[in-house]
Design brief:
- The protein has about 100 residues and is α/β, with parallel strands linked by helices.
- It has one domain.
- The protein is built from three helices and eight strands.
- The strands form two sheets. The chain has a five-stranded mixed β-sheet with strand order 1-6-7-8-2, with helices on one face.
- A hairpin with a 4-residue loop joins strand 7 and strand 8.
- The protein is globular.
- This is Phosphoribosylpyrophosphate synthetase.
- It comes from Flavobacterium subsaxonicum WB 4.1-42 = DSM 21790.
Length: about 100
């Protein structure tokens, strides 16, 4: 995993990942990481890039941009705001996404 502490903008991080072939847009839905034509469990994807964005003055403006690649080769982007996740999201998905917090 390539952790990048990047404080430019969320759009810049997404653009950089798009240039690297991360073309899908992922969303978290309960036990899955979904995109327009499929979904992956926590065992079926790896986080390859992480960009942190810190708001200038408001902690609510913080975001994390993930570059994610599935075991089948699908590459995409997931953006989370302030590491907040919906209540029904699988603990395994959240743990995988937040592993960078433990590595600091």
């Amino acid at each position: 995993m390539s952790i990048v502490y990047h404080y430019a903008t969320v759009i810049k991080a997404i653009d950089e990942l798009r240039e690297k072939g991360y073309t899908e847009d992922f969303n978290i839905q309960e036990n899955w990481l979904e995109y327009h034509s499929g979904k992956f469990s926590h065992e079926e994807f790896e986080i390859t890039h992480i960009y942190f964005y810190e708001g200038d003055s408001n902690p609510d403006d913080e975001a994390t941009v993930y570059g994610i690649e599935s075991a089948s080769g699908v590459k995409g982007v997931l953006v989370t705001g302030n590491d907040a996740f919906p209540e029904k999201v699988s603990v395994k998905i959240v743990d995988k996404l937040l592993v960078h917090k433990k590595d600091k």
